[in-house]
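FORM 12-B: Structure-to-Sequence Request
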């Protein structure tokens, strides 16, 4: 069936990024529930490596999904690969709702993770390939906002369900995960395919028509469409003459892109912010909060996440990627040091676990507890303004057309591998090295800032094809790059002048006749 297509990029982004909402739903489907009596009782108070495995199962599945997302997306298209991913989500949700122990729960989260691995890597690719260069950052930020809305909505669904007795408490909460998947599957047929993917597979007429519909309300002769299509085909021709297979990710300076795309995703996880999103309930137990107060205070964090990522939507393309990545990592590092330092200096040991929770063996009270809570919130605010959205934007921009789907999948693998490792590491780390966990993340944040300064050129307001030059051996040093200064603008102006000259010549000849 041929479905009518909607070409407004903001509408397209709203539908496509429901894939991010799936990710958000699955994150807080655990964070809102792991502290409830129903969960603790039914799963026999999981802690240490068992709770780590439950938390990390989503990331494990996401690694698997990301590994085959690239070739899958190149074969059937960005849009259709997102649609197919939803079937894994539905299967995983069924298993979670029906689980009879933590083995089935882990299996269901792995299946959900396969879906998240595909959508988290290919939604940014799809959005990057349809968006105008001036709006590309803000369009991809919608993906991060969708993740955060999913986290917030699911957290409070979980909180509301915590008042239901028995296993229905968490089964009903997990069952609501069907809703965003159905919305996504119903909306995708109305979205256009990526014009760059269409060009890649040789469907040039459809690619030009789609590009014109997105960029110029269907006008194929618009100077922007002409200039951008010329740039796409020129770069695509050159890429097809380069190295094949996995060599193309490392030959002729391509290693710089591979390093940038994968490392920015790894640093997003190594910054330690997901300690808060996954295990904020534990952190606030260290600060002396318990029961409903703890859950509500944790929910405030997710609201702050949304508010401040909404703010970055309006200026990410003006400020650029580099400043946000560099200063964001430094700010997060300071927050981690403060939280770790206060817990280390003022905490008391609780060997049996705070409130019987063996994952939390220290506690602070009074003014130090207020500092821990305040800087935990500040950490999330800085993360929401910087690494959370920008890492996905930057990773989607740095690849060439021939490598983008698989390259972004590689970047997502880096993200999910560290997500998995940290999900597995954090509960036992809290139980063994306690406050020192935050010091480790603080050091890593400063490492992220250093690499961003030395190796990440600015990509804001540059076409995807222009970014190739920034990573070449002839490109400028990363710290000398700025937002804008796009060659595509010059090509558009050149096309406008050419048409003006042709028109003037035509008028002159017509007058002579």
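FORM 12-B RESPONSE
SEQUENCE OUT:
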């Amino acid at each position: 069936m041929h479905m009518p297509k909607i070409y407004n990029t903001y509408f397209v982004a709203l539908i496509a990024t429901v894939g991010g909402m799936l990710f958000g739903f699955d994150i807080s489907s655990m964070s809102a529930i792991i502290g409830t009596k129903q969960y603790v009782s039914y799963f026999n108070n999981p802690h240490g490596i068992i709770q780590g495995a439950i938390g990390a199962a989503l990331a494990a599945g996401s690694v698997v999904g990301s590994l085959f997302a690239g070739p899958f997306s190149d074969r059937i298209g960005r849009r259709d690969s997102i649609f197919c991913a939803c079937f894994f989500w539905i299967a995983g949700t069924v298993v979670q709702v029906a689980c009879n122990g933590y083995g089935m729960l882990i299996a269901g989260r792995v299946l959900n993770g396969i879906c998240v691995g595909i959508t988290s890597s290919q939604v940014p690719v799809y959005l990057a390939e349809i968006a105008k260069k001036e709006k590309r950052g803000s369009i991809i930020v919608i993906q991060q906002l969708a993740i955060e809305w999913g986290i917030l909505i699911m957290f409070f669904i979980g909180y509301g369900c915590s008042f239901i007795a028995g296993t229905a408490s968490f089964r009903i909460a997990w069952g609501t995960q069907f809703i965003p998947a159905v919305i996504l599957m119903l909306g995708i047929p109305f979205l256009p395919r990526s014009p760059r993917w269409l060009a890649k597979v040789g469907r040039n007429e459809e690619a030009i028509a789609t590009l014109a519909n997105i960029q110029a309300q269907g006008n194929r002769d618009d100077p922007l469409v002409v200039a951008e299509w010329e740039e796409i085909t020129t770069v695509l021709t050159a890429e097809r003459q380069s190295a094949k297979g996995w060599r193309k990710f490392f030959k002729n300076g391509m290693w710089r892109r591979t390093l940038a795309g994968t490392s920015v995703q790894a640093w997003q996880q190594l910054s330690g912010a997901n300690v808060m999103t996954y295990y904020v309930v534990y952190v606030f137990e260290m600060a002396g909060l318990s029961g409903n107060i703890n859950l509500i205070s944790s929910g405030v964090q997710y609201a702050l996440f949304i508010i401040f990522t909404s703010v970055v939507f309006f200026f990410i393309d003006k400020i650029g990627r580099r400043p946000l990545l560099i200063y964001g990592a430094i700010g997060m590092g300071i927050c981690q040091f403060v939280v770790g330092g206060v817990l280390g200096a003022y905490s008391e040991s609780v060997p049996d676990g705070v409130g019987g929770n063996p994952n939390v063996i220290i506690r602070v009270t009074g003014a130090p507890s207020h500092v821990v809570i305040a800087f935990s919130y500040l950490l999330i605010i800085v993360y929401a303004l910087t690494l959370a959205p920008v890492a996905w934007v930057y990773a989607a921009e740095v690849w060439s057309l021939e490598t983008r789907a698989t390259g972004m999948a590689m970047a997502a693998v880096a993200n999910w591998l560290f997500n998995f490792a940290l999900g597995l590491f954090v509960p036992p780390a809290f139980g063994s090295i306690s406050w020192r966990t935050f010091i480790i993340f603080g050091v890593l944040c400063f490492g992220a800032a250093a690499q961003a300064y030395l190796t990440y050129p600015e990509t804001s307001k540059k076409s995807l094809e222009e970014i190739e030059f920034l990573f070449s051996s002839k490109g400028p040093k990363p710290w000398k790059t700025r937002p804008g200064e796009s060659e595509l603008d010059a090509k558009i102006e050149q096309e406008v002048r050419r048409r003006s000259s042709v028109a003037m010549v035509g008028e002159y000849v017509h007058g002579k006749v």
